[in-house]
Amino acid sequence: xxxxxxQPIDGQKPGTSxxxxxxxxxxxxxxxxxxxQATFDAVGGVTGKTLVLGGDGRYFGREAAMTxxxxxxxxxxxxxxxxxxxxxxxxxASNLIRQRGADGGVILSASxxxxxxxEDFGVKYNMSNGGPAPxxxxxxxxxxxxxxxxxxxLDAPDPDLDTLGESTMGEMVIEVVDPVSAYADLMxxxxxxxxxxxxxxxxxxxxxxxxxAITGPYAVEIFENRLGAxxxxxxxxxxxxxxxxxHPDPNPTWAHELMAEMMGESAPDFGxxxxxxxxxxxxxxxxxxxxxxxxxxVLAANAHLVPGYKDGLKGVARSMPTSAAADRVAxxxxxxxxxxxxxWKFFGNLMDAGRVSLCGEESFGTGSDHVREKDGLxxxxxxxxxxxxxxxxxxxxxxxHFARYGRNYYSRxxxxxxxxxxxxxxxxxxxxxxxSLKGTQTEGLTxxxxxxxxxxxxxxxxxxxGQGFRILFEGGSxxxxxxxxxGTQGATLxxxxxxxxxxxxxxxxxxxxxxxxxxxATEALVGIRARTGRTGPxxxx
Length: 541
Ligand code: G6P
Ligand code: ZN
Fold this sequence. Notes:
This is phosphoglucomutase (alpha-D-glucose-1,6-bisphosphate-dependent). Its cofactor is Mg(2+). Belongs to the phosphohexose mutase family. The protein has 3 domains: 3-179, Alpha-D-Glucose-1,6-Bisphosphate, subunit A, domain 3 (Alpha-D-Glucose-1,6-Bisphosphate, Chain A, domain 3, 3-Layer(aba) Sandwich); 183-405, 3-Layer(aba) Sandwich (Alpha-D-Glucose-1,6-Bisphosphate, Chain A, domain 3), CATH 3.40.120.10; 407-540, TATA-Binding Protein (2-Layer Sandwich), CATH 3.30.310.50. The protein is 33% helix and 25% strand. It contains 18 helices and 27 strands. The strands form 6 sheets. A 7-stranded mixed β-sheet has the order 2-6-5-3-4-9-8, with helices on both faces. 6-O-phosphono-alpha-D-glucopyranose binds at residues 16-17, 111, 342-344, 361, 363, 365, 484-487, 494. 6-O-phosphono-alpha-D-glucopyranose (G6P) binds at residues 16-17, 111, 342-344, 361, 363, 365, 484-487, 494.
């Protein structure tokens, strides 16, 4: 039977990055089927269309892929290009959609959230430009989930997703492709692989922690096979359904094994980690942590050294809570610099319109217009290429950068799982006094201005309100506060702290110490600890 009757299921509203739920919820009868049929309906059907399908290898991914193929076949799709084993990193899926001229793609991932039967699963639809569906599409999907009465699903045996090549399911062609090769080939067009091979041949030591998630096979192929890095350079290189129990989020808290190695006595020259689906990155040198905001600024300043960007950048964009370090580089290079709300999707229009080629976020996301997703391994290769050309260590590159542009000391403090009411009241109170803060003196700092960020997209004119609170202090320091849009438990308050030091003195302080006055002023103005009873943040990046 092809047509199955169903009824709407609650809780199918896609968030920042598709639909993310506990795996057990996705495994309920009809849950995935309803959502996928609603997605196909919302994009005008898939009859005659070509789609890309794959995910980060987490628990339930393969079964979900089988189901989606049967729904696509029954809905008349012409071809689905699937990564072998239902594997594709998010940037590799974005690349395949673009390279193969596909009409769209389905990515099976909950990004940096843990995986397994008791953890998270997710489904995301990407458009023909390779980027995540915009809000107009995700809300159409949601509307459709609320009125759905049936879905089409072919009654066919499970296809073989482990053998490369074409097969058919009904009228539809299933094309199983190597998940890695097209992506690795794309990287070869952007970076100087000869220089990188020489770098590794000269004894340069790197540690890549793929955190038992999807970048493992990509990193092994690129760093070890193609660039000659010693075997074992990539650790946790096999994607596992539960990520081996790891929480695949590349930050100092969750990538603690890598942190310990890089801060230890015999640290390699360079270290990096990526997340579940391979779009996030963390960059480290021996004894050195590079904040994502500084990473973006360094990449902007040095991009011309990398073959793919040798003619210069079109422009740079960062999310509002990301530090202004990149702005200083853009100003020096005469580049346009855009400040967008949190969320990679806001960069898509700017890239499609040819206004920017480099984008980054404080949340460990960096990327360029080579795809329409952020790209973890791309960021690692950017750094490697720059290190190879400049023949300096990560620490030396940072020191040199700060000496030239000054340093934007930066840190993010997260207060997780707060009662939603409490968090909302606290920010509501802040909203109420925003207008009266100007000129206020607190902890030796004077408020210069304060507002709630509102973004007008320069390409399509759409307006996004309520995108975070900003308090600017005289002298270039600021604090930004917003509630996370991706948390799954209660409310997560993110406090982004920034202080500019022009130099030449005071460029090598400990960020927490340099930011202490702003932390104290924030407590005086907002009363986070006083109101929540917490003694400090749960996560510091
Ligand atoms: C996802 C998006 C990022 C965004 C991040 C923000 O990872 O892909 O573009 O920066 O969420 O998360 P938050 O929890 O701060 O809303
Ligand atoms: Zn991710």
